[in-house]
C-alpha cells in the first residue's frame, strides 16, 4: 500500500508542475448555464448572425435615403426615410436605422388630441422617428421649393439631373393650395370660406365680393376675416366668416393672394335661401343624386 500511495503522490506532483509550466493549455471554464453560449462567444453568434461574408450580402436597390448596416453589422440595407420609425443608436434592432442626413429622435410633430386610450397615446408620443438634420428650405433647379435637404435628396434620387438653385425657397407667384368652395345654406346660418396659399415671399391675402369695390370685411359687422401662417412652411390660411347670413349676402366671393412676384385669385359662390327655397333646393339635390345612382351600373364586374 505504501508503494501505491507513493505512485499517486508522484502523479499528482507531475500534473501540478505540468499545469504550472503550460498554463495556456488549461481548458476554458464556462460560467454560462447549460444550453447557453459562453460569455466569451463572439457577439455575432450570440445574436444569431454567422460570420460576416460580404460576398453573400443581397443586392439593394431603390434606397432613396442611402444605405446603412443591417442588424448583424455586416450587409447594407436601405436606410429609413424622413418620418419613419427608427432604432436609436448605431445598431439596427427592430425598425432599422435612419438614412443619410437623418437622425433618430422623438417625433417633433404635435401629438393628437386627448382621448380615452391614454396609454396608447403615450406610446405614440415616445415613438422615435427619422428627422432631417438640415431643416433649411432650398430651391431646386426645377423651380420647386423643398422644405429641407432630405426631401431634395429623395427627389434627386430618381432625377439625377436635379440640382440646387440656392438656399431658401424659390421665389414664386402665390399658389392657392386650397381654394374656397361654393355653398348653399339657409337664412340666419353661419358660413365660412377657407383659402390656403403658398408663396415666397409670403403673400398678402384679401377677400372681395363681386359687385362691391371694397376689401372685406369693410364696415360690415357680421363679416370677419382672420389669417394665420400655416399649416405648412411658407403657407398662409385665411378665413372669411359670415354670421347670421341673409339673402343679401348671396353672391360670388373671391380670395386674392399677391406678393412682389405676382398675384392669383380663386372664387366661390354663396347662395343664402329662405326656408321654402332651401327645402326645395335640398329636394332637387336628393332627386338628382338618386337619378345619378340609378344610372350607375353597380352590377358591373370591375374585378
From TrEMBL:
GO terms for biological process: regulation of cell growth; regulation of signal transduction. It holds the Pfam family IGFBP. Its main location: secreted. SUPFAM superfamilies: Growth factor receptor domain, Immunoglobulin, Kazal-type serine protease inhibitors. One of its GO terms (molecular function) is insulin-like growth factor binding. Residues 124-172 form the Kazal-like domain. Residues 174-271 form the Ig-like domain. This is Kazal-type serine peptidase inhibitor domain 3.
Amino acid at each position: 500500500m505504501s508503494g501505491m500511495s507513493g505512485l499517486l503522490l508522484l502523479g499528482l506532483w507531475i500534473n501540478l508542475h505540468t499545469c504550472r509550466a503550460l498554463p495556456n493549455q488549461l481548458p476554458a471554464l464556462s460560467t454560462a448555464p447549460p444550453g447557453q453560449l459562453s460569455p466569451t462567444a463572439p457577439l455575432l453568434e450570440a445574436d444569431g448572425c454567422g460570420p460576416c461574408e460580404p460576398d453573400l450580402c443581397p443586392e439593394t436597390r431603390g434606397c432613396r435615403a442611402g444605405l446603412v448596416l443591417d442588424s448583424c453589422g455586416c450587409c447594407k440595407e436601405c436606410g429609413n426615410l424622413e418620418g419613419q420609425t427608427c432604432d436609436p443608436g448605431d445598431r439596427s434592432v427592430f425598425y432599422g436605422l435612419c438614412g443619410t442626413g437623418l437622425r433618430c429622435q422623438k417625433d417633433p410633430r404635435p401629438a393628437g388630441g386627448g382621448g380615452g386610450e391614454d396609454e396608447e397615446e403615450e406610446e405614440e408620443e415616445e415613438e422615435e422617428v427619422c428627422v432631417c438634420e438640415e431643416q433649411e428650405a432650398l430651391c431646386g433647379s426645377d423651380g420647386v421649393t423643398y422644405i429641407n435637404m432630405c426631401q431634395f435628396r429623395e427627389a434627386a434620387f430618381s432625377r439625377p439631373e436635379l440640382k440646387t438653385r440656392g438656399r431658401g425657397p424659390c421665389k414664386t407667384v402665390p399658389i392657392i393650395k386650397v381654394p374656397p368652395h361654393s355653398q348653399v345654406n339657409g337664412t340666419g346660418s353661419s358660413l365660412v370660406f377657407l383659402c390656403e396659399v403658398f408663396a415666397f415671399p409670403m403673400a398678402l391675402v384679401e377677400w372681395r365680393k363681386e359687385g362691391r369695390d371694397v376689401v372685406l370685411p369693410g364696415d360690415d359687422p357680421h363679416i370677419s376675416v382672420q389669417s394665420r401662417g400655416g399649416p405648412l412652411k411658407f403657407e398662409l390660411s385665411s378665413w372669411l366668416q359670415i354670421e347670421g347670413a341673409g339673402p343679401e349676402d348671396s353672391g360670388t366671393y373671391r380670395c386674392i393672394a399677391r406678393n412682389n412676384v405676382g398675384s392669383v385669385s380663386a372664387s366661390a359662390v354663396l347662395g343664402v335661401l329662405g326656408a321654402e327655397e332651401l327645402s326645395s333646393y335640398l329636394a332637387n339635390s336628393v332627386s338628382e343624386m338618386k337619378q345619378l345612382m340609378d344610372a350607375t351600373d353597380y352590377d358591373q364586374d370591375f374585378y
